[in-house]
Specification:
The complex is a heterodimer of chains A (706) and B (166). Chain A is an alpha+beta fold and 706 residues long. Chain A is built from 23 helices and 21 strands. A 5-stranded mixed beta sheet of chain A has the order 6-8-9-11-10. Chain A has a 5-stranded mixed beta sheet with strand order 19-12-13-21-20. In chain A, strands 14-17-18-16-15 form a 5-stranded mixed beta sheet. In chain A, helix 2 packs antiparallel against helix 3. Chain B has 166 residues and is mainly beta. Chain B has a single domain, classed as CheA-289, Domain 4 (OB fold (Dihydrolipoamide Acetyltransferase, E2P), Beta Barrel), CATH 2.40.50.180. Helices cover 11% and strands 44% of the residues of chain B. In chain B, strand 6 and strand 7 form a beta hairpin. Classes of the chains: A alpha+beta (706), B mainly beta (166).
Chain lengths: 706, 166
């Protein structure tokens, strides 16, 4: 039972998140029936299963809210801001109730307040009698069963008039719309296509037979064709309904279907049946029915059989579609895959050294499998980032009303997938950035009007893929950063020198320094200079990077570049002395040789001339105090770090390497420039270098030395 | 005479650093490994010898001789890595400790363990739980959690020459 309760809590948590998203979307499109239904369904499920697991408080409370939404659903009430406010509060209250242990006294006053608020919204006549609202015993799968039992199979013949294309209608999109209603099989009929010399290219000669299984009813199907009703011929017939037809009985014979459709008369059918060949073939041979029509009838037969079979197996099928797995088991899987990758690297090494072709072939096969396994395993942990976006919508909504600002939030790329742990760790930094945008970025409505901007500001939050990283953009159309104030403050704090010529980007980067704040006063939202420091640390922890762009008066854009996964990366394996090091491949551009001659020519300065471009380099051997003999020819690995090209000098470039990232642990947490370790094929440990931090620490050392 | 905190008869693993015998509570010891390839992490104090691969996890290795102010451990056939579980700021961390050789597992009665002398041990007495006697030889019982507390490691890190810039 305890496990069931834990599952319920987890599920309810997800439903609450969905509820919140739907409510916030509803605010933008209050007429959207789909959303209203989603809200209703979420509450219904929370209530139903809540009652089942003894969460009576939740069941009773949610029932009240649900009652109100039932009216909205039935069109007896409209969606208002007040209603959404209260429903959002109810969501919070349910979340609170969910956290309370069963059987203990809970604080009912906020709940009662919400309910009385909701009751006031209800039109007087519809006011439910208090006390008469008993919780109906609906269990969790109730809704889906209800839906399932409504599931019907329809036969639709969609025959557009030849001129439908000229009117600008695309029949394909209508069919796609039908597909979205449920399971559909579509057969196109070509028998009306005339000979080429009679053919008018603009005309549509094709018509379609569609077999659709849906729970949405005839009206939904008709709605799809609502705009083309006059331009086409539509026949919609109910052919199968669960519970209506005896399930044990097989579906109708092919001939019966064709007769029912009017494609074949009963007399003709009898005649053909006499010939006792395969019926479909015969029909075609006889030229009574075109092959397409037979094909279409066959599809119908298979479709209905399929649906019935599915219906019979529905409970199992649903269970198999997705399973809930504890996160630690996934972590374990990733660890094992990581070890597998390591062993595979070793295997490849050994097989190559042995030179036995069979052995090499096997090891290559293992390599292919391991790579697939790795990708699949990493994919399992990928989640769309959209789930966090909805949380921020709520944040923006609440904060803007608290501050008296009018702020909308727009999101894009919510379906961009990122590793689960990365998404979790992104949460805090994003909260701080968005709070900052709202508090400091977007101006008060009056100020905005005075500046000639629309009174309501907008915060954009988006995600997109870029190579092996994800770019997360937070943009506001507020006042932008004040370059001079930041510069002055940074000089005051001794972060930059007063005479330094530095780019805007570098100045903006100062806002991430701990304790840095240009706000004159500390508000409840921000101003203490803590937030952006949290952002920096959080993003560093994810091996990500931040860049800030701002135009005074127009707005600020903060871009976070986050690696897709924390577990396995592509990298370049290099050697210095006896030690191996690993450089993340994403930033690396090329490798060039560095000879003694070159070093002599640059007069001891760490600068290399690469095709006429001067590139500074960091001799890692000296930096890491590796003392043994320097080779005659070294290699410079050139990387692009935040837009600057920097070289890293190593003895020898070994090649590309699949790197399974391992943490170095607490003891090495203060080591700069090393972000982790990995295990090589031969079992030794190689360190993963963080090129950005290396560059930074060298810069600091040199600045301190001057 | 006994030491506060040691009330039960406990088994100890004894090992040698140079000629001295030290002891660790067996409960803290996970396993003993032969010495393998240790990868040095740059810009860390000398006593932090580096990291090893312990069946797929990366485990730091400490040179206890350097830690206790002796000369660095020289590799012999007997050199081994004692893998211990250390409680570091509330978390259990796995660490490897280099030892010249591992001796045996002995039982010591609380009565036979005395408090460490404040002077004369040439060691920070915080690291020592007590002094026991095995076969008429003194054995220093280490408080491994204190030896590897992160403050200790950080303090020593500052004094090391290898954290200097090149």
């Amino acid at each position: 039972m305890e496990q069931a309760i834990a599952t319920y809590k987890e599920e309810a948590g997800e439903l609450l998140a969905e509820l919140e998203t739907s409510l916030l979307e509803l605010e933008e499109t209050p007429e959207d029936n789909d959303l209203i239904n989603r809200v209703f369904r979420a509450m219904h499920t929370i209530k139903g299963s809540g009652a089942m697991f003894g969460f009576d408080e939740i069941a009773t409370f949610t029932h009240e809210v649900e009652t109100v939404f039932d009216m909205v659903r039935n069109g007896k009430m409209t969606v208002t801001k007040r209603l959404l406010d209260l429903t959002l509060k109810s969501r919070d209250h349910i979340a609170y109730l969910l956290g309370c242990p069963i059987g203990e006294e809970v604080d009912r006053s906020p709940g009662d307040e919400i309910i009385s608020g909701l009751r006031q919204l209800v039109p007087q006549l519809e006011m439910p009698q208090k006390g008469s609202t008993e919780v109906p015993a609906i269990n969790l799968p109730g809704l889906s069963e209800e839906e399932l039992s409504n599931e019907c199979t329809w036969r639709i013949r969609f025959r557009p008039l030849p001129n439908i294309l000229i009117c600008g209608t695309n029949p394909i999109s209508l069919i796609n719309e039908l597909r979205e209603l449920g399971t559909a099989h579509v057969v196109a009929q070509f028998d009306e296509i005339p000979q080429i010399d009679e053919l008018v290219a603009e005309n549509c000669y094709i018509y379609w037979d569609i077999i659709l299984t849906t729970s949405r009813g005839e009206d939904a199907i008709k709605d799809v064709f609502i705009f083309v009703e006059d331009d086409c011929d539509i026949k919609i017939e109910l052919i199968d309904k669960s519970g209506l037809i005896d399930r044990d009985e097989g579906y109708k014979k092919l001939g019966d279907i064709l007769v029912e459709r009017g494609d074949l008369s009963p007399v003709e059918m009898q005649k053909v049946l006499m010939l006792q060949k395969r019926f479909g073939e015969l029909l075609v041979e006889q030229g009574i029915v075109s092959p397409e029509k037979v094909q279409s009838a066959l599809v119908e037969q298979q479709h209905v059989k399929g649906v019935r079979k599915e219906r019979g197996e529905a409970p199992q099928a649903e269970a198999a579609a997705s399973i809930r797995v504890p996160a630690e088991r996934l972590d374990q899987l990733i660890n094992l895959v990581g070890e597998m990758v390591t062993v595979q690297a070793h295997l490849t090494q050994v097989s190559m050294a042995g030179g036995d072709p069979t052995f090499i072939a096997i090891s290559e096969e293992v390599e292919r499998l391991t790579n697939e396994l790795r990708d699949t395993a990493l994919n399992i942990r990928m989640l769309p980032i959209g789930s966090t976006f909805s949380k921020f919508k709520r944040l923006v909504r609440d904060l803007s009303s608290e501050l008296g600002k009018e702020i909308d939030m727009e999101t894009f790329g919510g379906d961009t997938e990122l590793d689960k742990t990365v998404i979790e760790k992104l949460n805090d930094p994003l909260v701080h950035i968005i709070r900052n945008s709202i508090d400091h970025g977007i101006e008060m409505p009056e100020a905005r009007k005075a500046a000639g901007k629309p009174s309501n500001g907008t915060v954009y939050l988006g995600a997109e893929h870029s190579g092996d990283s994800v770019l997360i953009t937070i943009r506001d159309n507020g006042g932008g950063l004040d370059r001079d104030t930041i510069r002055a403050k940074a000089i005051e704090k001794g972060l930059i020198s007063a005479t330094a010529e530095i780019s805007d980007r570098e100045i903006y980067a100062q806002i991430f320094a701990p304790g840095f704040s240009t706000a004159a006063k500390v508000t409840s939202v921000s101003g203490r200079g803590v937030g952006m420091d949290v952002v920096k640390r959080g993003i560093d922890g994810l091996r990500g990077s931040i860049s800030v762009d701002s135009v005074r008066g127009t707005g600020t854009t903060i871009t976070l570049k986050i690696p897709l996964t924390l577990a396995i990366i592509d990298s370049l394996l290099v050697k210095i002395g006896k030690d191996h090091f690993v450089l993340p491949l994403a930033a690396i551009e090329e490798c060039v040789e560095l000879t003694r001659e070159d070093i002599k020519n640059s007069h001891g300065r760490n600068l290399a001339n690469v095709r006429g471009v001067i590139i500074p380099y960091i001799p890692l051997r000296q930096h890491f105090l590796i003392t043994d003999q320097r080779p005659e020819i070294e290699q410079i690995v050139i990387a692009d770090i935040h837009g600057t090209k920097v070289g890293f000098v190593v003895d020898h470039v070994v090649g590309e390497h699949q790197t399974v990232i391992k943490s170095l642990g607490k003891m090495y947490r203060d080591v700069r420039g090393v972000s982790g370790a990995t295990i090589l094929g031969d079992g030794t440990v190689a360190l993963i270098l963080d090129m950005g931090v290396l560059l930074q620490s060298v810069e600091e050392l040199e600045n301190a030395g001057v | 005479m006994s030491v506060a905190g040691i009330t039960e008869t406990v088994q100890y693993l004894t090992f040698k650093l140079a000629d001295e015998i030290f002891a660790l509570d067996v409960a803290k010891v996970r396993e003993i490994l032969e010495i393998t390839n240790i990868t040095k992490v740059p810009q860390t104090p000398d006593f932090m010898r580096g990291v090893i691969n312990l069946r797929g996890s990366v485990v730091p290795v400490i040179d206890m001789r350097l830690k206790f102010g002796m000369s660095a451990t020289e590799q012999t056939v007997n050199t081994c890595i004692i893998v211990v579980e250390v409680n570091m700021d509330g978390d259990t961390t796995i660490l490897g400790a280099l030892a010249d050789s591992v001796q045996e597992v002995v039982e010591m009665e609380p009565e036979s363990i005395e408090a460490a002398p404040h002077i004369g041990a040439r060691l920070n007495t915080d690291f020592i739980k007590g002094m026991g006697k095995v076969d008429s030889r003194f054995v220093m019982i280490l408080d491994i959690d204190k030896v590897f507390s992160s403050n200790e490691l950080a303090d020593l890190g500052q004094g090391s020459q290898s954290s200097d810039k090149f």
